[in-house]
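Escalation from tier 1.

The customer reports that the assembly of two entities below gives different structure tokens on two consecutive runs. Tier 1 could not reproduce it. I'm attaching the input and our single run for tier 2 to review.
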Amino acid sequence: MKQIKTIAVKEFKDYFISPIAYIVISLFLIVTGWFFFSTFFIFDRADLRDFFSLLPLIFSFIIPAVTMRLFSEEKNVGSYETLLTMPVSFTDIALGKFLAATMFTAAMLIPTLSYPLFISLIGEVDIGPVIGGYIGAVFLAAAYCSLGIFASSLTRNQIVAFIIGTALCFTLTILDKLLFFMPAGILPVIEFLGAGSHFATISKGIVDSRDILYFVSVVFISIFSTHIVMHEKN
Amino acid sequence: MIEVQNLTKYYKDFCAVNRISMTIRKGEILGLLGPNGAGKTTTLRMLTGYLRPTSGTIKVNELNMPEDVLKIKSLIGYLPESAPLYHNMLVYDYLDYVARIKGISDKETRYDRLLRLSELCGLSAIMDKPIADLSKGLKQRVGLAHAMMSDPEILILDEPTSGLDPNQIVEIRDIIKRIGKEKTIVFSTHILSEAEATCDRIAIINNGRVVADDTTLNLKKRVQENSLIRISLQGADPEKALALLKTIDSRLEVTLVDPAEENLVSFEMRSSGDQDFRSDIYLKIKETDWIIVQLAKESQALEKIFRELTREVA
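Tier 1 run:
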């Protein structure tokens, strides 16, 4: 447990030592800020629905960029060997890195809290969906981070890790938007597999245990797969 | 301390380590010697638990790999080849992180440990520098500090002196010798003089097999039984000299070789048995008017046995 924390703290700090954090955060804020406010005054609604509906799509590009280095870089530099020969288990390493990435994404969301603050100045904001939205965003981020980490554990090339990660996250994002291609019989299954519907319910302010369970399952499966990859590769 | 039985590692179809068995006793400095690609690094990686052996068993202090792998890892300090470290961290931050992972949770203890290691490895002046800015030798020393962080009973060092300048090599060797007084050390190298200078015992590995495993002294003795004498004469006629040298003893095998300098005639004489023929040779030459410029018995015993045992690769 202590070692998970040590690794998580180290990886979290690492983001801010290198320029990655600042680049990714600025990019994220510019993109979300632009897409949100460019239509905000047209719709003239004092809520964050548009911001949250965009998040899955933006996350599926931003989060793989955050997670791509976590394993790939270590493998490339060779520090993976030093790490694995220290008395830590594979699970500790994977969980530590996962927590660091999730914390980082959560930190990335903090500046966006200024949006509801700003909106509350010019209109009345329903606080429920906002809180729900942020809780949902953290769950979504956790799920995508775990997928990104799995992608990173597959290769020593960060670009490959990024592309695989994006492919995985993007698939989950658009799965429930592709339903009209699917045979009617498996529609409910496909819809359940996609991240969109689960995130949508939470961001409306409805915390349903099925949605929470969905995100936790994605995290569990990804981290477990990472563990298997680490085990198989040595 | 470490018991290895029939250790084998295949990479796909390539057999990197082929049924190695050895016992490493407590307090011993063992040198793994071998040409490039002999399987040294693979063997060490299996000892540290980084690679899983295809077959064979590793026992450390009665603990079995892989069931007790975490416990074994905490007994071992490992310095991989070319000391891969996190480049963006400061030396202090890195060592502090390592100390935390190795379970030194108390702040005071951690600080003391870092202080002691920085003195031992000569890092005091660079604790506030980013690792990326360090020279290779300094990185190696940070790696060594990393390996010794938890004060492990066993140190495994993979080519600790590769790529260092002669001064740094001597420094690292001194550190190894100093800590080798209390700890068990296994290190790999392809530099013979290094193994000779630092190890109690040497295992020579070739093509994934142990071809020799003995104390440094015994290994050297083994070669002296097959000694080589080099002689260079001035003012001698090659034919006559050859004939004369052949009359000394029937056990001496004399061959004419290219002389190192002009005007000289050089020979190599091989003999089996531990009899020293140098005085006989001297007396024989004394009867002529030739001048002995060089008369030497091969002293690089280890180099010779190394070449003999690993020749078939080349």
